[in-house]
Amino acid sequence: MASNYLYIFDNDLRTSYLPVLSQFIKEINDSGHGELQCAYLFDPEDLKPKNFQSALISPAKLKLICESLKELGQVLANKGILLDICIGNKSANLGNLIKKYNVTCLGYSSPAGSYESELYRNAEIEGLTVHNDFQTSLFDKATLPFAINDLPATFTRFRKVVEALPLDELFTHYQKLPELSHKTNCAMQLLAKFEASNLSLNKTPAISYALDTANKLKIEFSGGEGLAVHHMNNYFSLTSPSVYKTTRNFLDNWTASTKFSVALCLGNISPKQIWREIVKYELKNGGNESTYWIKFELLWREYFHWYAAKYNEKLFHFSGITQQKPLSSFYPERFRKWIDGATPSHFINAIMNQLKTTGYISNRARQLTASYFVNELNIDWRYGAAYFQSQLIDHDVASNWGNWQYLAGVGCDPRGKRKFNIEKQQNLYDPNMSYINKWISSATTLPLDSVDYVDWPIVNEEP
Ligand SMILES: Cc1cc2nc3c(=O)[nH]c(=O)nc-3n(C[C@H](O)[C@H](O)[C@H](O)COP(=O)(O)OP(=O)(O)OC[C@H]3O[C@@H](n4cnc5c(N)ncnc54)[C@H](O)[C@@H]3O)c2cc1C
């Protein structure tokens, strides 16, 4: 009996470095028969505020997803493969697709987050042959040197284990998607079907509203595999990788850091592709501490990926992966002032304004505003993480929630809570206040609280 294959795209919106989809094509080519469909599932409910008062996805990230899908659908149609975009409840849509295409083999990239994995736990996929693997990380099932539950307790221990392996060899094999040897569908018809499903995406009111909102922002990134590869090649044609370690903490400078996080979270590129380019750059220009440090940061991303896969729901627990609840609470007024850039700190306000306006802030800016949230505002860290999730153009569940836990002292940091001295950091990274002046928030800077701890109004005693 011929097999009917269904591949679900998610945060792997590209056509190279996709072993699961490549395997499906190989099986069809080897057997000489079988049908292949691809789909992308999107639930507009994810645009509405949910847990901790925040949405699961930002309008800015949605815009980049739409751009990525547009390119992907066209490239796949030319390869004889349909990309069907399904809007609505993901579990129901997956069930419908399985019936519609009489699917016998289901494939997808294994998600690290527990919410994302739920889809495949809930969907009625019994009786199907399921093929999945980790396609958004450096390691996959076959190369990961330990069982997920044996992930080392700290990043340093993890790094030492993996750096003992021949990483440059492991991650540098180029993986191109094979061509279907017998194309049963005409590219033009597939393109027309894809365009129709893409149109329904844009016509969904919640989605078009979010896209309108995104168009009003100052987004410096675009989605799509082609542009992502172009950006990566361009970065490695500069001298920036050789000074990365000395510039990566700058607050607002395009080439100071790689800006790969956006393409990585959409899956427009695989971290393996980046690793491969670093190795090529090192061979050509010589490696140094900075080129090593890009790999070092990719290993942080990798660590948080497996950390999310290991700890599942604990990624969102108040006490994180520790047994101890932090001594913080939820203060709605402080939370609102942090979001609006109306705290007593101009520096923090500027960061929050940049985040709201562009969907992107540097790593140091993320650390500072998260530290302020946890240490000065004393708010439950999960509200901060959820707000980042609803705004960041590069939101990645493992990196975001893992970093927040780390800063809040409930994650993988053996040293406990991290507190940055905001004034000192401002003097270090914005001594002439150019960043503050650029991103200064229009909101009025206000005292943190308008009532005291017994709910009495705090009177401003100044004349
Ligand atoms: C509170 C907080 C929340 C964060 N949320 C996210 C998020 O949602 N998505 C996300 O991709 N990164 C997140 N990060 C990590 C980091 O800030 C961003 O990856 C980085 O700023 C993106 O810019 P870049 O690509 O130029 O990074 P570069 O400095 O050029 O780093 C290269 C790559 O290494 C990885 N990387 C760098 N730093 C980290 C880190 N601390 N943790 C994990 N991976 C890292 C990223 O994939 C990045 O693209 C967060 C950090 C903090 C402190």
TrEMBL record:
Carries keyword rRNA-binding? no
Q: What is this protein called?
A: Cryptochrome DASH
Q: Which Gene3D superfamilies match?
A: 1.25.40.80, DNA Cyclobutane Dipyrimidine Photolyase, subunit A, domain 3, HUPs
Reported function:
May have a photoreceptor function.
Pfam families named in the record: DNA_photolyase, FAD_binding_7
Its domain of life reads Bacteria
InterPro entries in alphabetical order: Cry_DASH, Crypto/Photolyase_FAD-like_sf, Crypto/Photolyase_N_sf, Cryptochr/Photolyase_FAD-bd, Cryptochrome/DNA_photolyase_1, DNA_photolyase_N, Rossmann-like_a/b/a_fold
> Which organism does this record belong to?
Psychrosphaera haliotis
Its family remark reads: Belongs to the DNA photolyase class-1 family.
What residues does FAD bind to? Y244, S257, T258, K259, F260, S261, D394, H395, D396
The UniProt keyword set, sorted, is: Chromophore, FAD, Flavoprotein
Please name the GO terms that the record assigns under molecular function. Answer: DNA binding; DNA photolyase activity; FAD binding
Family annotation (SUPFAM superfamilies): Cryptochrome/photolyase FAD-binding domain, Cryptochrome/photolyase, N-terminal domain
